[in-house]
Amino acid sequence: MEVLKDVFGELNGQAITSYTLRNDSGMEFTCIDYGCTITRIMVPDKNGVKENVVLGYDTLEEYLNYSPYFGCIIGRISGRIKNATFTLDDEAFTLAKNENENHLHGGDNGFHNVIWSSSVETKADEANIVFSYTSPDGEEGFPGNLKLQVTYSLNNENEIVISYQGVSDQKTIVNLTNHSYFNLSGNLKRTILAHELTLKSDGFLELDPSFIPTGKVLSVEDTVFDFRKGLQIVQGVNSEHPQIKLVGGGYDHPFLLNANHEQEITLVDYESGRKLEIETDEPCVVLYTGNSLEEGFTIGGVPSEKHLGLCLETQLPPNMINNPNFPSAVLEANEVYSTKTKYAFKLI
């Protein structure tokens, strides 16, 4: 295992550090301490050609000027909270409103815009980058001083594991995720429309016009939301299903997982031969197919366009704090928040 450290840029007089982890088979994984952002994952195709399979930039300025959460950690809460308000023990909390009247992805100054402390741990068959940050009481409206640790691990099995841990001194809510956009074609040669996704999920959450779950779980049976036996993304994008049209022609929906740590999420690009298997502790994954990616800028020299990447955000259901039927995001004072997601890169 090898770890390379470099300066990625400078923000407000503080250097932004880049870490590249390289395993014994040559797979590379690069991240920066700004937002715990994954900038590059280099894996081979069926011919042994190593290429980048995530959307990311080469400069800090590009992340600052335009990045729809490429590769970063989202928090304190991922997804949307309706009307940017919630109640804990009869006390109402008002959050930052950064998407119309709602709260999105932790607010404008969420964890994606934080410079995290970082350190390196290396072992014979594994390398870790450990990121730390304390979110102060009241940040973006959330209660409690929340001490966080996010660890990115790369092993010799071509697996990346993201581990999240946190402790708050007050009762609060927490729901973290990573917002990487995957494209297994390699170096963004094609869109993700021909990618085939398999999900162990019988139900997805209906969205209202603000893309917030209504609380209703819809069956995937006989719909373009049925990924249980595998489905190409293009079949959903071209559908007239009202939920597909609502989010701009594609998916931006939470799926409730039937299983954990049983290859419950699989993404395949048959042309390159690459396969991504995701296993998680979380009860839900949000599938977002880049419906709102705009034109007018480039990503690694490739013009941006709709459906250039897709996100598989493992988490609790969005707006869970305002929906008692969903798994709870409440973290009691001094309780440990802990969850883990593994990304295994393979060939078909």
Kindly summarize this structure in a few lines.
Helices cover 5% and strands 45% of the residues.
Protein model, in words:
With 348 residues, the protein is mainly β. The chain has helices at 60-65, 233-237, 242-246; strands at 2-11, 14-22, 28-32, 37-44, 50-52, 73-74, 80-81, 85-88, 91-94, 103-104, 117-122, 126-135, 146-155, 159-168, 172-173, 177-178, 181-182, 196-199, 203-207, 213-219, 231-232, 252-256, 265-269, 274-280, 284-288, 298-299, 302-303, 310-315, 330-331, 336-347. The strands form eight sheets. Strands 11-12-13-14-30-24-23-18-21 form a nine-stranded antiparallel β-sheet. It has a six-stranded antiparallel β-sheet with strand order 17-28-25-22-19-20. Strand 2 (14-22) and strand 3 form a beta hairpin. The protein is globular and about 60 Å long. The model has no long low-confidence stretch (mean pLDDT 97). InterPro entries: Ald1_epimerase_CS, Aldose_1-epimerase, Aldose_1/G6P_1-epimerase, Gal_mutarotase_sf_dom, Galactose_mutarotase-like, GH-type_carb-bd. Keywords: Carbohydrate metabolism, Isomerase. It catalyses: alpha-D-glucose = beta-D-glucose. Pathway: Carbohydrate metabolism; hexose metabolism.
